[in-house]
What we know:
alpha+beta, 5-stranded mixed beta sheet, 19 strands, 44% helix
Amino acid sequence: MDASAVRARAADLPRDPGVYLFYEAEDVQYVGKAVDLRERVRSYADPRSDRIRRMVERADRIDVAVTDTETQALLLEANLIKRHQPRYNVRLKDDKSYPLVQFTDHPVPRIEVTRDPDEGATVFGPFTEKGSVETVVKALREVYGLRGCSDHKYRGRDRPCLDYEMGLCSAPCTGEIDDDSYAEDVRAAIRFFEGETGALADPLRREMESAAQDRSFERAANLRDRLDTVESFHGSGAEAVASPADERTVDVLGASVEGDRATVARLHSERGQLVDRSRHRLDAPEGEDRVGALLAAFVPQYYADRDLPDAILCSERPDDDEVLAWLEAEGVALRVPGAGREAKLVDLALKNARSRPGRDDGGARLADALGLDGPVERIEGFDVSHSGGRAAVGSDVCFVDGSAEKSAYRRKSLTDRNDDYANMRELVRWRADRAVAGEDDRPDPDLLLIDGGEGQLAAARDALDGAGWDVPAVALAKAEERVITPDGAHDWDDDAPHLHLLQRVRDEAHRFAVQYHGTVRDEVSTALDEVPGVGPETRRRLLRRFGSVENVRAASAADLRDVAGVGEKTAEALRRRL
């Protein structure tokens, strides 16, 4: 777009707050927020940097979304950046988006919390407190009986489901309520999200008072807590900033920018004790105050699915007045300490941000060795586990910059069969299908690591091709520690850092799969249950020691007595019954 096209588009825009999106074909290139959409978009006729000038020239259209408040614009901008990952924004690569509430575009609308709303749905949000949103949605369903089931489950029912029995749904699927009455209940719920708090608070208050009169004090207390959440849902958030004595939770953020790489390290303190730490990668911002811009981008994106702390300590002040105003309105104290214990905590966070665990863990060397375009920073490892085809499960672990990212671990029950190739194909296809459909909230990895050899890798690549997910995959065989690729095998030096990285991922995937398999295996019924004198604990000991019922069957009576701690008669009974 040239300057005249930008001015022409801006002239059609309102002077309301909102967000704007620059598109190139169907791809979002840039997302921004504005107090005045018309003035902000018009400013792009004279871009402030060469990088933004290139973005404007490549763009072929500008879309906007109007919001009621500047805070909503701030949160919606963060939500869209996290969803679309536009190349010209500073973006957090390893996190989630803000939750929204949607009423689906259906003759009998469904209400649900989502991060990816359906086309045509009536959507409200974004919201920062997912727990509060879920509390409100559940309360709305109890009061107005709105359905939460999928359209597939809604169709063709001949009797109400369990939600009806629990008082969460009025069962329009089977005609327990007519369409007009249901539509009126939907409109009442929508009025609540439009700002009419009494649409939900009033019936909750009446129910709470009724429960108290009936001396159902526990239910009354639960309703009171729910009412508090509902009444504060549309609050101004202008409570006084907590004093240090009231700050039970504190986050310390240290930010570092090196070239085109940026890192924010977070330390989390509860009641004065450090209890957690994490590191997060972003694209480096442009401009003079790069650290301030980095923190301004990080803060709204990071606190998408988390409670805000009582205070945030920063190495520098975020360079965005709207972010600062939002934190103040939410009652979060933001400080840039210059001395004392708080300054030492910030220094510690800065050291964490400036350290580069990925540098010595072989990510760059791994990319070179495999011929990949960029450094391998995010790896997902896969393994399967079963006992003779029973209790088959799969693991999907994640490493970022050489460190385990346990919040991104996933596991899956698989079809019971004694076929490692088929099990691996099913596991990887599950991950690939979810990624292609946008149902997995994790970023795509730079590399998939399969625990196994050529057969497992071939099964995994077959699954990737079938789903159309273009992610490189290699395998690591345990016996000879050879790295298997589509082009052949690699025998790297035993002390090669890129081999050590793959070994850590492989071993963690194996550990996680075996752990889950043990849980599933212990939950299923086995032939051991039929043996008199063998209870759940004895069964667990036997399976943990011998691995399967078949191995228990092959064990000697003496071994059974030693492991199970049972007498001679029970051991002989075990052998006879198995």
